[in-house]
């Protein structure tokens, strides 16, 4: 995916004036490619949250990274079983390149916000993070992992998708009103969170 030139242009165009446009990025693509609307998808996430609250042990086992990495039932990325033939296939390699590009783009957005707290990330989110394609790329790469590993990476995938939607919401600002320090902090926290999720997911790839 050719991110850098397009994304830089979009971010620079957004930096001069904040013109929020709260349009859900790629909901149409999601319906067309997966048959699941964003509303349905997050309703499913809500159901998972209810189950997790009812069974706290299972919730602890779902944690990755620096929090709960040693919880029962959670594989460390170093212990993941990866099918080398599937990983080497052209489709999975293309998906891997795309996921790495998405992760790099999050880093670019963080740098842009650091340089201009009022920048509108909406154009980049809608153009570069096509919800349906992003989910397809993550799931395609996921096929290289064994079932035990996928129990954790599936959760990371859902987290990435939810995190990006939260960034879209945090980015929205009324026209003519500057983003407050509190909202800037919230946006930065969301960007940090999705960057971490991408890094945790990519850590499973040898």
Automatic annotation (TrEMBL):
InterPro entries, A to Z: PsbQ-like_dom_sf, PSII_PsbQ
Domain of life per record: Eukaryota
Compartment(s) where it occurs, according to its Swiss-Prot or TrEMBL record: Membrane
Pfam family, one: PsbQ
Gene3D superfamilies, sorted: Oxygen-evolving enhancer protein 3 (PsbQ), four-helix up-down bundle (1.20.120.290)
GO terms for MF: calcium ion binding
Coiled coil: none
GO biological process: one example: photosynthesis
GO annotation, cellular component aspect: extrinsic component of membrane; photosystem II
Keyword annotations from UniProtKB, A to Z: Membrane, Signal, Thylakoid
Signal peptide bounds: 1-17
UniProt keyword Signal, yes or no: yes
UniProt keyword Oxidoreductase, yes or no: no
Broad class of the protein's primary localization: membrane
UniProt protein name: Uncharacterized protein
Taxonomic lineage: Eukaryota, Sar, Stramenopiles, Ochrophyta, Bacillariophyta
């Amino acid at each position: 995916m050719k991110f850098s030139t397009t994304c830089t242009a979009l971010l620079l165009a957004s930096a001069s004036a904040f013109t929020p446009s709260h349009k859900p990025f790629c909901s149409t693509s999601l319906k067309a490619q997966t048959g699941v609307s964003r509303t349905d998808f997050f309703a499913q996430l809500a159901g998972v949250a209810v189950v997790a609250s009812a069974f706290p042990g299972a919730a602890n086992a779902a944690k990755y990274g620096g929090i709960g990495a040693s919880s029962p039932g959670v594989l460390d990325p170093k212990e993941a079983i990866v099918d080398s033939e599937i990983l080497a296939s052209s489709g999975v390699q293309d998906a891997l390149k795309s996921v790495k590009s998405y992760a790099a783009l999050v880093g670019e957005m963080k740098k842009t916000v650091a340089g201009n707290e009022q920048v509108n990330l909406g154009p980049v989110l809608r153009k570069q993070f096509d919800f349906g394609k992003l989910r397809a790329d993550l799931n395609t790469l996921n096929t290289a992992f064994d079932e035990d590993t996928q129990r954790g990476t599936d959760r990371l995938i859902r987290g990435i998708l939810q995190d990006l939607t939260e960034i879209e919401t945090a980015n929205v600002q009324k026209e003519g009103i500057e983003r407050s320090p509190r909202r800037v902090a919230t946006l930065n926290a969301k960007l940090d969170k999705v960057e971490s999720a991408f890094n945790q997911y990519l850590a499973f790839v040898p």
